[in-house]
Design goal:
The chain is mostly helical. The chain is built from four helices and no strands. The longest helix is centred in the middle third of the chain and has 21 residues, at about 70-90.
Length: about 120
């Protein structure tokens, strides 16, 4: 549902508005403005006879991955996978860095190591 005024289904009033807009004169751009714009544009161009400097290999890798946001996501996923992997080692008797100071088991009520908290619910 739109909020257009009801004109008995006649859209001629829209054509009239558009015709009026088309007949209005277009203002001319001041010469000073065009001169400033063109000077800025020419200032952004490389010097003639210059050579293209290749991007460093690390910047090419970062751009190929998808930018710094993608690199941050990959680092976060790798760190999370590492922590989850170390949490799975606790069951086979390998001491993980966060359980070196005390002994806890998954079936104890106070265990919050790795995935022990989800075993409390049953």
């Amino acid at each position: 549902m739109t909020n257009t005024p009801n004109h008995n289904g006649d859209d001629a009033w829209i054509d009239g508005i558009l015709d009026d807009l088309a007949c209005m004169p277009v203002p001319e751009t001041p010469d000073d403005l065009m001169t400033c714009v063109m000077e800025d544009a020419f200032g952004m161009l490389p010097a003639p006879g210059g050579r293209v400097i290749p991007a460093p290999w690390w910047r090419q890798v970062v751009d190929g991955i998808g930018g710094w946001v993608a690199v941050g996501g990959l680092v976060t996923a790798a760190a999370t996978g590492f922590v989850v992997g170390l949490g799975g080692l606790d069951r086979v008797g390998v001491t993980t860095p966060w359980t070196m100071t005390y002994e806890t088991y998954y079936d104890s009520p106070g265990s919050l190591d790795a995935f022990g908290w989800d075993m409390e619910e049953g």
